[in-house]
Amino acid sequence: MLTLDHVSFAYGNKQVLKDLSFEIKQGERVALMGESGCGKTTVLNLVAGLLKPDDGVMTCKATQISYVFQEPRLFPWLTVKENVLAVLSDQKEEKDANEKKVTEALVAVGLADAADLFPAELSGGMKTRASLARALAHGGDLFLLDEPFSALDNQTRAELSAYLLDYFEKNQTTVLLVTHQKEDATTLASKTVELPSL
Amino acid sequence: MKFLKKALRIGLVLGFWIAVWAIASWIVAKPLLLPSPYRVLLALLEELKTPQFYSTTLLSLWNVMLGILIAVLGGTLLACMTSYVRILRELLLPVMSVIKATPVASFIVLALIWIGSSYVPTLITVLIVLPVVWTNLDVGFQRIDRGLSELARVYRMPLGKRLRLLIFPSLSPYFSSAVRTSTGLAWKAGIAAEIIAMPRGTIGTMIGEAKQYIETPKMFAWTLTVILLSILIECLFSFVFNRLSRQSKYTVKEESAHADA
Fold first, then answer.
1. What are the structural domains, with CATH classification, of chain B?
2. pLDDT level of residue B253 (50, 70, 90 thresholds)
3. Touching check for A157 and chain B: CB below 8 Å?
4. Is A153 on the interface with B (CB under 8 A)?
5. Dihedral sign, Cα of residue B61, residue B62, residue B64, residue B68
6. Pairing state between β A2-11 and A55-60
7. Exposed end of chain B (fewer CB within 10 Å): N or C?
């Protein structure tokens, strides 16, 4: 599903990744770990196509990617429900199916009652959950998760971890997860890749 | 009650300044230099009785509004282009700076030589408004949230959706601010162009003629007409923008946006 072969990347003069190689098979869940600034988010951005490697080859066979960014990245002028709907197709014939997807995703993250609220009316944790709901409603064969539980309390974190694990196993989703928490890595991922600091 | 209070406050402020004007004209005691508000009102009422007043006002309104429209469309188009083509922005920056710094009178005289008096007011309005619209929208384009743009790319939002959900709402405060700011400037420049170019049947020409014949109250009456028209158009734009932002789901809820920041 995803192969990084001797990939290097630098922000100007600052080398972040050098000769990074790893492979993720279809349905595999991998946790990327390492010190702050070692390039974990850069790897996700490369996979998402937001950055291009300076050197090396990256092959991604995913047809649809969902990305939960480190920050919630919600449109401030849209409600929670509209934010989730924003990443779904506008086709009229899919309207009912999309409404159902949004409702299911909001229920899953515990935001069913906050569907009509604007981002400014949400707490940090609720915003994170809204961005998770957006990814869940969008679906896809590859999920990129950048510290998705960082703003959540322990109970919500445990509940959401269990839900996501179930969702990923059911849908055979490939997952690339960035986390600092060993607990998240062991719960959600089947393999860990440790990034070196340069 | 709130509306009444606001109206009363505006009325009191207006009353204060009209009183200052009346006292000043009484102290000067030379109506040719500074006519009293009463004399100006009489002159305005005299003008209002003539059909020429309405055709003159309409022609000046047309000149200025056409200039604003062309400048808004041109400025928006240029801002779209410069936000994507950096070199074009670099090329345009000095041109806009020169336009902003050049005295309006110089442009008017040049335009008079190049295109004749009829089109000068519209051209001058365009020259004054276009840099304001372009500058505002250029900043607006640069301030579009990069995180949200990346989100749109990752989730493969089609262009129409990006425009509707991201670009238009992000630009709307800059656009409305540009149009509101430039309305007053447009009237100032447009009427100045009419005074110098003297195209037939315009407010500027009437002011110019009043100056030639030292009809100061008439000059004040036409100036008052320009001020009222400018305020009216600005209020109209504010009303339209407020209405649009209230109706559109996709416009920044300002309080929400600030709270989020």
1. 40-252 (1.10.3720.10)
2. very low
3. no
4. no
5. positive
6. antiparallel
7. N
Pairing of strands A14-24, A174-178: unpaired
- Between positions 146 and 175 of B, the ones with CB within 8 A of A are 147-148, 150-151, 153-155, 157-158, 161, 165-166, 169
Query: Per-residue pLDDT tens for B209-251?
Result: 999 888 999 999 999 999 999 999 988 988 888 777 665 555 5
Tell me the Ramachandran region of residue A46: left when phi exceeds 0, alpha when psi lies from -120 to 50, beta otherwise: alpha
Mutation choice for A interface testing from B149, B154, B250 by most A CBs within 10 A: B154
For chain A, domains (ranges, CATH) are 1-64+140-198 (3.40.50.300), 74-138 (no CATH)
Partnered with residue A66 across adjacent β-strands are A143
* ipTM of the complex in this document: 0.92
- B69-74 long-range CB contacts below 8 Å, 24 or more apart? B70/B122, B70/B126, B70/B130, B71/B125, B71/B126, B71/B128, B71/B129, B71/B130, B71/B133, B71/B182, B71/B186, B72/B129, B72/B133, B72/B178, B72/B179, B74/B126, B74/B130, B74/B133
DSSP β-bridge partners for residue A22: A4
- pLDDT tens digits for A92-135? 888 889 999 999 999 999 999 999 999 999 999 999 999 999 99
Name the residue with tokens 């229920």: A107
